[in-house]
């Protein structure tokens, strides 16, 4: 098992990564499950795949599981599910010192984390991430949120978990498409600050995705360690460091919005395409060799991922896409900062990007 400390001032915690952690849940959570009854929020897919393992582990450890099972999918990050989850936790008489379990992908982590943040002005919660994306990104760092009619993740809080248990065994039941989407966030850590790790992805990504256990542990642990360093130094995204984690997200978010935040394009797929676009845009600005940008696209294509925006068949122009960017929550005094690349492994925040420049670039990409 790998153990990565997340050294957030005032709220440090561990991310433990290994196979079989859910089966050993009670031992892993020693000192945290204070009462017989334990509240777990999950979604229907995850409950079907892993509910029995968690139920059995709790039962063996002398606990009783209380489940809240929400529908699988992004739509559960809603006011309605938040209210119903908080009401359920209140009815369960959860106290501030109790630990609520969030068993699922980024949707469950974000919803449960936000519920924990506002319940009694802040309760404890434990992340049990079950997607690759959640293990390497969303379960770490304390961003929690729901979506509203105005957009994605616009209402939320910073609220750190008390512990993260990333059980690598859960990835065995994850659909391949979801695994690949999460892999985009793994590659992100290489591209934004660690060229050697991008090289590792080039050499080992395919075998890791095919299930090699040692490679999986390395990919998750290395990604979590990178994220832990960043969030410990800039928890609230005020110092220009955590913002680098948004590499590919501004372009990606516009593509997701154009696809109606539907299954047509998963978040991680949009991030992969977004990173290709950020790299190509950096190349058009003379910051990065064009061959390096194409290298990223080739890396995703070789794994069977969509790597060209033109392949999405969006039937829109560049300006339509940049219009979605106007609602980005990173917008600051009329300027949208973009994470660009000076090299593979060298991201920086550019504050001088005009949206008409981006629109013209996207027109060319859409017509490729
Ligand atoms: P998700 O939670 O919707 O999970 C994807 C699908 O896989 C769902 O259908 C789910 O039921 C299923 N699933 C999950 N684990 C499974 C397993 N082990 N076996 C079988 N099926 C399983 O999606 P996601 O990609 O994990 O997360 C996306 C969300 O994360 C978005 O809402 C995004 O905004 C958010 N996010 C948050 C942060 C953050 O820092 N808080 C970072 C990145 C993304
Ligand atoms: N996923 C981006 C962040 O946690 O800041």
Could you please describe the fold and organization of this structure?
- The protein has 13 helices and eleven strands.
- It is of the alpha/beta class and 368 residues long.
- It folds into two domains: 2-173, 3-Layer(aba) Sandwich (Rossmann fold); 176-366, Up-down Bundle (Dehydroquinate synthase-like, alpha domain), CATH 1.20.1090.
- The strands form three sheets. It has a seven-stranded mixed beta sheet, sandwiched between helices.
- A hairpin with a 2-residue loop joins β10 and β11.
Summary tags:
368 residues; alpha/beta; Dehydroquinate synthase-like, alpha domain; 2 domains; seven-stranded mixed sheet; two-stranded antiparallel ribbon; 46% helix; 18% strand; globular; binds nicotinamide-adenine-dinucleotide; binds glycine
Low-pLDDT runs: none
Helix content: 40-55%
Distance between the termini: 45 Å
User: How many strands?
Assistant: 11
* Strand arrangement, major sheet: 1-2-9-6-5-3-4
Mean pLDDT: 97
Q: Which small-molecule ligands are present, each listed once?
A: nicotinamide-adenine-dinucleotide, glycine
The CATH architecture of the largest domain is Up-down Bundle
Domain count: the total is 2
Q: What is the CATH class designation of the largest domain?
A: Mainly Alpha
SSE string: EEHEHEHEHEHEEEHHHHHHHEEH
- What is the CATH superfamily label of the largest domain? Dehydroquinate synthase-like - alpha domain
Largest sheet: 7 strands, mixed
Radius of gyration: 20 Å
Structural class of the secondary structure composition? alpha/beta
CATH-defined topology of the largest domain: Dehydroquinate synthase-like, alpha domain
- How many helices? The count is 13
Provide the β-strand percentage band.
15-25%
Shape, per Cα inertia axes? globular
